[in-house]
Amino acid sequence: MRQLTYDGVPIPGLNDLVRTAIRLHPAPGLPRPDESHFGGPLLWPSDEPWPECPATWPPDPDASDDAWPGGHPLDEPVPAMVGAAQFFRDDFPELPFPEGTDVLQILFCPLEHDNPYHRGPAVRLVWRDSGEVGDIAEPPPAPEDAEAAYLPEPCVFEPCSIDELPRLCDFPPETRAALGVPEGASEDPEGWPELDHYAKIGGWTAWHAAERVDLGCRECGAELRQTLALATEEHEVGCGCGVDEEEPAGWAFGDRGVLNIFTCPTDPRHPFKVRIA
Ligand SMILES: [Zn+2]
Ligand SMILES: [Zn+2]
Ligand SMILES: [Zn+2]
């Protein structure tokens, strides 16, 4: 790749900042349980209990994600989760898959939860070996008081790849210095490329409403990495593909923002974090 410039000046380290994201381009469809999708049926074995919300009170020490400041009282029924997304390794080898697994399933508790950083659905990530699934479970109905914004319409993907540069808050100190960014500045340099909103795998976080805080792994201390972005809106950007529908999944996070899932580069099964930005 040619040396990237900013304002006509080649900046050392700029090329290393480029991350290629897989833009998912969700589109309304009728996915099967053995396909990658948003909001479709999960390949979930009928002999495995359907998962419940991990945000309980008192807290479940094994539940991934941040320490919840509250949750569903354990002396009442804990809500069943709903399938939010499913990704097969054959379709998206860019995602992390622990050894022996080939499908990643994302579930939401479709109610409002107070995370230390935002309000939104509670999230579970489940990796499994699709070859071990025999009969497929019939999911329980969504909780009666579910938020419609957290119940996605079924979508299939028409992915493409797109190169991204980070927001200023994700710059390493050397790049900030090379760009002459003043200490403590929080605005992107003038003319810096926008990081738009769209569903994607990898790439950089479109920080906006949320602060970039506390992304260290609770287990090993490594810096968690942007892994999946679920966007309220699909923005038209220069990836060369058309966008037929701006909100194909019909879900909405925060102030029309993006629900970002961060995983540990050491081991994706370390506790992940969610930030709605
Ligand atoms: Zn919940
Ligand atoms: Zn870790
Ligand atoms: Zn595209």
Descriptive report:
This protein has 277 residues and is mainly beta. The chain has a domain at 5-25 and 162-276. Helices cover 4% and strands 27% of the residues. It has helices at residues 14-17, 173-178, and strands at 5-6, 9-10, 19-23, 26-28, 37-38, 56-57, 72-73, 82-88, 103-114, 119-128, 155-157, 160-164, 200-201, 225-231, 258-263, 273-276. The chain has a 6-stranded antiparallel sheet with strand order 12-3-13-14-15-16, with no helix packed on it. Strands 5-8-9-10 form a 4-stranded antiparallel sheet, with no helix packed on it. The protein has a two-stranded antiparallel ribbon with strand order 1-2. A hairpin with a 2-residue loop joins β1 (5-6) and β2. The protein is globular. The relative contact order is 0.21. One zinc ion (ZN) binds at residues 53, 55, 72, 79, 109, 111, 113, 122.
